[in-house]
């Protein structure tokens, strides 16, 4: 079993280190190969996703990814910016289905931005489409007829892109509470009207799943009002990006939410995929030693479950994280004082 480890920038290497310690402690004979990505790769090799890194990623059974993003690189031409590395990996490897689970661990209810009785009901899964939408449409700058500058990004979804993510979401709902909420903006956008039509067509294959639809502005409000109403949420790339950061604060912190990005390719061990916390490189706290590594450790658990066929070990990691939280091992993001390594140690002790 081969895992590519791409730590990236800012707190990426700090949180990835802890997840790697957890994987190594399980002693599963996994071979880990590290490669540069993001701003670190640009500075060392002149490109945020060097072809050698892409080859290592492609050749693995699964990828553990930290985060990319570096304020020093914000003025570079877009194709050289660190963020292009994660976008490139998702697109090049056809990782179109991003699973972002949000669940309140026992003991975290009092640390949510919501009231404990509202927060304690959260157990939802956001299925975010990852290969299309306004992210990958034609974009650029142009001059308007009056001579002023204009920026544009084309939003679109093809029928097949919507259908394949809808199938993933319906199947995920079948394995959970059998409720699927599709989030769009069909009252304004044609892209969303097609999304809604295709999701409704796909529903015919899943009569056991209850499908509802919600506009994204209402969904943002409902996530705060009553997040317990959601089981599986399926949505496009941009809406899913925004709603998942919001869901993280409902749970307690962005340092808690893990993710899996999957496609259709099967390896000898499971479904090939990329695993990363939903947060970024957090330049404001990088190098200070108090980034919360739990989201990355939980991403490693998802890697073991989906890509390496090691469900029992994935459960062990998730249980250990839960125990650490119950024992009050909280990072600063959750109002505690535990540092990055201390949190890693606490999870290892409870493994
Ligand atoms: N997949 C990715 O690699 C990814 C995701 C999001 C943002 N980014 C990039 O990261 C950079 C910073 O973006 P941003 O500030 O908007 O988002 P961010 O997620 O990096 O940080 C947002 C806030 O959350 C805090 N935070 C994030 N992760 C944390 C953790 N594990 N523990 C404690 N606190 C944490 C940060 O300190 C910051 O205050 C940008 O360059 C952005 O493009 C990358
Ligand atoms: C860094 C950026 C390209 C990325 C996204 O928008 O998908 C990030 O916000 C995420 O959530 O993984
Ligand atoms: Mg995001």
UniProtKB/TrEMBL annotation:
Per its database record, what is this protein's job? Catalyzes the oxidation of 3-carboxy-2-hydroxy-4-methylpentanoate (3-isopropylmalate) to 3-carboxy-4-methyl-2-oxopentanoate. The product decarboxylates to 4-methyl-2 oxopentanoate.
Annotated site (Important for catalysis): 135, 185
Example GO molecular function: magnesium ion binding
Query: What's any GO biological process attached to this entry?
Result: L-leucine biosynthetic process
Q: Which UniProt keywords apply?
A: Amino-acid biosynthesis, Branched-chain amino acid biosynthesis, Cytoplasm, Leucine biosynthesis, Magnesium, Manganese, Metal-binding, NAD, Oxidoreductase
Q: What is its EC number?
A: 1.1.1.85
The protein's name in its UniProt record: 3-isopropylmalate dehydrogenase
Q: Which cofactor does it need?
A: Mg(2+); Mn(2+)
Question: Start and end of every Isopropylmalate dehydrogenase-like domain?
Answer: 2-347
